C-alpha cells in the first residue's frame, strides 16, 4: 500500500537547512577539531538560551545525558531511582548501569505522565533521585513533583528527550528541575544527523561535574578527578544541529498548529467515548513531539489506517515492568494505568511537513474505523 500520510519525514525536515548543515560540516573538516571543536560551545550557548538554564552540556545521546546526570548526583549501588513505568527504557537502564535500582511508578491517564500521588508513596530511605519524563512533548507536573522531592530532600531529573522547546508558564522544558536531559535522535523535535544529547542545570558545581564526566572524568588533560565516560558529542553532530536551530521555532509552531487541529477534529469522537487524548491548558506549550490517542482495539485500527496509506506507531507497546530485563525491579503499586496505556495507545502522524489535508484525511479515516 502506498504511503499517503507518513508518520515522520526526517529527509524532508533536513531539506531547508541541508546546505547550511553541509557548510558547517565542511568547516569542521577545515579546522580539524572533530572532537571539542568550537561548534560544541556555540551549540551549548544556544541550547541554554532555549531552555533558560544557566548551563548546557552537550553529549553523545539522550541516554548518555541521563547517565551523566545520575553520575553527577553520585548515584550508585544500593540507591533507588524512581522512574515512570510508561516510558522508554533509558532512565531505568541508566540507573541499572550505575548499580542502582529503578523503582517503577504508575502514570496518569491519558497523558502517561508521572502520577505525583503514586510518586509520594514510592519514596523510601534509599531514594536518591526522581526521573520525571515530559512525555510526547508535554511537561510533567513539576510543581507537584518538585514540591514532593523538596520535602524529602531528593533531586529531580527531567527527561526532556521529547519536549525541548515546551514550557510551563514562564519556564521551559529542560529547566523544570535541578537537572534536565534531552535527546537529538533524528526523529526528535530538534533532530540531529545521528545521535546526540544534552544536560541542563543552573548549578555551577553540577555543570562542572558533568563536563568532567563526559570526558573520562578529566579536570585537565590526563588528570582524572572522578569516574567518567566517553560521552562527548562530535563537532560534526554539533554543526548539523546548529543548522537545524535556524528553523526550530518555526517547526515547533507547525507542530502545535497540527496538534490543535487534531484536537478540534477529534473532539466529536472523544465525546462519544470511543477514544481519548490529552486535554489540558498546558497543551498550548507542548512541543507536540507525538500525537497519542487512547482507544480500544488498537491493532485493528492501526491496520485499517495502514491499509489506507496512513502510518502510525505505538509508543510504547509494553510498560517497563513487563520488560524481561526489569523483572527484578521494585514496583510501587499495581501499575494499572501504565499497563492499560501500553495496550491502547496509538500515535498518529505529526511532523512539520504534514499538511492540514493529511491531518483531515487521518481523522476522517480513523473516525470511520472507530465507529464501524
Explain briefly what this protein structure is:
This protein has helices at residues 10-14, 18-31, 38-51, 62-72, 90-97, 116-122, 142-152, 204-214, 235-245, 248-271, 298-307, 336-344, 356-370; strands spanning 55-59, 80-84, 101-105, 127-133, 156-159, 167-168, 171-172, 179-183, 197-201, 218-220, 223-224, 275-276, 291-295, 330-332, 345-348.
Description of the structure:
The protein has 372 residues and is an alpha/beta fold. It folds into two domains: 10-245, 3-Layer(aba) Sandwich (Aspartate Aminotransferase, domain 2); 248-312 and 349-370, Aspartate Aminotransferase, domain 1. The protein is 40% helix and 16% strand. The chain has 13 helices and 15 strands. It has helices at residues 10-14, 18-31, 38-51, 62-72, 90-97, 116-122, 142-152, 204-214, 235-245, 248-271, 298-307, 336-344, 356-370, and strands spanning 55-59, 80-84, 101-105, 127-133, 156-159, 167-168, 171-172, 179-183, 197-201, 218-220, 223-224, 275-276, 291-295, 330-332, 345-348. The strands form four sheets. It has an eight-stranded mixed sheet with strand order 1-9-8-5-4-2-3-14, sandwiched between helices. The chain is globular and about 65 Å long. The mean pLDDT is 97.
Looking at the structure, what is the overall shape?
Answer: globular
Overall CATH class of the largest domain? Alpha Beta
CATH superfamily of the largest domain: Type I PLP-dependent aspartate aminotransferase-like (Major domain)
Number of helices: 13
β-strand amount? 15-25%
User: Would you identify the CATH architecture of the largest domain?
Assistant: 3-Layer(aba) Sandwich
Overall average pLDDT: 97
State the domain count: 2
Amino acid at each position: 500500500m502506498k504511503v499517503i500520510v507518513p508518520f515522520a519525514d526526517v529527509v524532508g525536515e533536513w531539506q531547508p537547512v541541508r546546505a547550511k548543515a553541509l557548510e558547517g560540516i565542511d568547516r569542521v573538516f577545515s579546522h580539524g577539531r572533530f572532537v571539542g571543536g568550537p561548534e560544541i560551545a556555540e551549540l551549548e550557548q544556544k541550547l541554554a538560551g532555549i531552555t533558560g538554564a544557566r548551563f548546557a552540556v552537550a553529549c553523545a545521546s539522550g541516554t548518555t545525558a541521563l547517565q551523566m546526570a545520575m553520575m553527577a548526583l553520585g548515584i550508585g549501588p544500593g540507591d533507588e531511582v524512581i522512574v515512570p513505568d510508561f516510558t522508554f527504557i533509558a532512565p531505568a537502564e541508566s540507573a541499572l548501569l550505575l548499580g542502582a535500582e529503578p523503582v517503577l511508578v504508575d502514570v496518569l491517564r491519558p497523558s502517561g505522565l508521572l502520577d505525583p500521588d503514586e510518586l509520594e508513596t514510592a519514596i523510601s530511605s534509599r531514594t536518591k533521585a526522581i526521573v520525571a519524563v515530559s512525555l510526547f512533548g508535554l511537561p510533567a507536573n513539576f510543581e507537584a513533583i518538585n514540591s514532593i522531592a523538596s520535602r524529602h530532600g531528593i533531586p529531580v531529573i527531567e527527561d526532556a528527550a521529547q519536549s525541548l522547546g515546551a514550557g510551563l508558564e514562564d519556564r521551559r522544558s529542560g529547566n523544570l528541575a535541578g537537572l534536565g536531559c534531552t535527546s537529538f535522535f533524528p526523529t526528535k523535535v530538534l533532530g540531529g544527523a545521528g545521535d546526540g544529547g544534552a544536560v541542563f542545570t543552573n548549578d555551577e558545581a553540577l555543570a562542572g561535574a558533568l563536563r568532567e564526566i563526559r570526558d573520562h572524568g578529566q579536570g585537565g588533560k590526563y588528570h582524572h578527578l572522578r569516574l567518567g565516560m566517553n560521552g562527548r558529542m562530535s563537532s560534526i553532530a554539533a554543526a548539523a544541529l546548529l543548522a537545524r536551530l535556524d528553523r526550530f521555532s518555526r517547526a515547533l509552531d507547525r507542530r502545535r498548529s497540527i496538534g490543535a487541529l487534531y484536537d478540534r477534529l477529534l473532539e466529536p469522537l472523544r465525546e462519544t467515548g470511543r477514544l481519548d487524548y490529552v486535554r489540558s491548558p498546558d497543551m498550548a506549550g507542548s512541543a507536540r513531539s507525538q500525537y497519542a490517542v487512547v482507544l480500544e482495539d488498537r491493532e485493528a485500527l492501526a491496520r485499517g489506517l495502514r491499509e489506507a496509506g496512513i502510518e502510525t506507531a505505538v509508543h510504547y507497546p509494553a510498560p517497563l515492568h513487563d520488560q524481561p530485563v526489569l523483572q527484578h525491579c521494585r514496583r510501587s503499586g499495581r501499575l494499572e494505568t501504565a499497563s492499560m496505556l501500553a495496550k491502547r495507545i496509538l500515535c498518529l502522524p505529526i511532523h512539520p511537513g504534514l499538511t492540514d489535508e493529511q491531518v483531515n484525511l487521518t481523522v476522517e479515516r480513523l473516525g470511520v474505523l472507530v465507529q464501524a
